[in-house]
Amino acid sequence: MILTTKTKSTAMKTHQFTRRNFLRGAGVTMALPWLESHNVWGDDPRSNKPASEAPVRLAVVFSGNGFHSKEWWAKGEGQTMELGKVLAPLADYRQKMLFISGLYHEEARKGNIHSSQTGNLLSGAPIASGGEIRSGTSFDQLLAQNYGRSTKVPSLVLGCERSNPSVHKNYSMLYSSHISWNSPTTPTPLEIFPALAFDRLFKDAATPADRSVLDAVLADGKALRRNISSADQQKLDEYLNSVREVEQRIENAGQRGELQGWRPTLTEPNIARPADGIPQDIGEHMRLMCDIITLGFQTDTTRITTLKLNNDHSALRFPNLGSIQQPGNGIDYMIHHLLSHSDKEDWLKVNQFFMEQLAYLAGKLDAIREGERTLLDNTMLLSCSSMMAGAKHDNDQLPILLLGGAGGRIQGGRVLDYRGKPDRQLCRLFLSMMDKMDVRPKSFGDASMMLEEV
Q1: What pLDDT, on a 0 to 100 scale, did the predictor assign at position 255?
Q2: Which residues have CB under 8 Å from 335's CB, separation 6+?
């Protein structure tokens, strides 16, 4: 059901997808990035106003199985904020970080296993067991039904590990595999193939020939280039080059193999490999997805995305990371889920690897200028997991942090600690984040008031 709000801003009402500017080719529509000399965000083209401010975006990045709890901390503020070892890769973004302690979901504590703690992470809803699938519509999809309707793709839901359809202790493992739900009984379809995620952003339909998306719009782009400022010409060239680079990386990555994690019984495929595949290197897979998110936001093709780096109860392995505990080897002697039941050095290294992907995405967003702000400044980048520590399934407080400024609506460089305080529902944060995007339900999950400090 689509939420109706009476408090959406006038800008939100006037920004319609049909009024956007695009480059077009056969079977392809590619939205333009922010340009100072074009009314990209839907301003009236008959006026002489400069292009309006870029919209606020939401990206949720999920890491399964929690973190090294003794090294997940932050204190202080601004550039002098001190970070625990898990968060060390994010040091450059301390002034744009909101570190939040003490929030939790009461409903997630009832099963105390991965599935019952993950399926409602973005909704706070009760979880059904015993063969029934029922959670709650997640807040990203509530936003997609409202705020996301102004874009070609209302929300982009990505992952780097396949969903698991099995059952664990009377709970479906689909809960462990999906954080985005477009209805209480339906997880949002998860795209794990970078090429298909890319196509969803830029292709209207399959084309007869295997053509580059960029090739299909070059002629339109050349015509546009003649009518924009020199600064915008450089911006357009950089944007088109970045699209080409991602296309080439996807093409190369798909040649090498299969997804890391579960090890198949065959070491070589016994059928012809599909043309498009999943990168063998898990780090490259994650970074490709981050690049696609950046392009989606940069072009306003989508404003809402979730990226599930791995499942809760994950089977990923990390041969790309050198082991501290077993020098000379990669960290592939144990799957991620089992590794999470320790506080060893390799577990910390894997944690930092996940934070490096978050830092990579933040860096990509922060490098793109949108008027006086960067794309990161116009984004809410939420990092989350469904438990603090995998060894204890500890979810009485969840590891939550926000990067970005929501278009000047969030002040970074702060630590908010709700431990020992009343009304510390995580859904209060979701209400606050939805408010930054002009969607204001009276309540959500188990919360009826926002976090005033956010």
Answers
A1: 62
A2: 261, 314, 315, 316, 317
